[in-house]
């Protein structure tokens, strides 16, 4: 687990997908991601379209609205601080019921319980650094719309229950 927060970034998340494909000797694949992984999938497709058969970009609109970017950054910093101070096992109890996850809990309590248990097992250091390096520094979808329009790769954009503000921008 890298200790240096500088080693956590959207570019790293994007390139981790490529590294997995390379390690498995897969030249092209369908790339699917949800939430933070949706951003990684999108960035992978933008950077390496020749390596993707298609993209599924799901539930990655939270915090994208230009007027709410500061709120998003404040919430991300607060979450990173909670993870760091209380540990991931405790922080997962709050983070696991955030706005974009509570619908999962409501619709599939058993699936959510499994997710929450795995979330609590995440590295405290890695999770705090991911919040600061990947989540907090990710661009808004609004900043990516022109590049998304130019993407010739088949792409399915799936929105979640909490992604309503992004619908008009990405459609």
Which features characterize this protein?
171 residues, mainly alpha, 3-stranded parallel beta sheet, 3 strands, 56% helix, 10% strand, globular
What is the total tally of β strands?
A: 3
Q: What oligomeric arrangement do these chains adopt?
A: single chain
What's the average pLDDT?
89
Radius of gyration: 16 Å
Task: Note the total helix count.
Answer: 9
Percent in strands? 5-15%
- The stretches of 5 or more residues where confidence is low (pLDDT under 50) are none
Describe the largest sheet: 3 strands, parallel
Helix content: 55-70%
Sheet with the most strands: spatial strand order: 1-2-3
Q: Tell the overall outline.
A: globular
Q: Give the structural class.
A: mainly alpha
Order of helices and strands: HEHEHHHHHHEH
Head-to-tail CA distance between termini: 38 Å
């Amino acid at each position: 687990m890298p200790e240096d927060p500088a080693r956590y970034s959207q570019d790293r998340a994007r390139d981790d997908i490529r590294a997995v494909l390379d390690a498995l000797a897969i030249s092209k694949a369908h790339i699917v991601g949800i939430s933070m992984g949706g951003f990684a999938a999108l960035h992978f497709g933008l950077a390496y379209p020749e390596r993707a058969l298609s993209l599924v970009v799901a539930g990655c609109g939270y915090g994208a609205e230009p007027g709410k970017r500061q709120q998003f950054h404040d919430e991300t910093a607060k979450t990173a601080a909670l993870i760091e101070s209380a540990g991931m096992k405790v922080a997962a109890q709050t983070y696991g019921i955030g706005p974009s996850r509570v619908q999962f809990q409501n619709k599939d309590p058993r699936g959510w319980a499994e997710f929450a248990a795995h979330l609590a097992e995440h590295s405290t250091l890695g999770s705090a650094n991911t919040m600061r390096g990947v989540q907090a520094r990710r661009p808004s979808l609004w900043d990516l719309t022109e590049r998304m329009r130019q993407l010739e790769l088949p792409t399915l954009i799936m929105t979640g229950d909490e992604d309503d503000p992004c619908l008009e921008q990405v459609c």
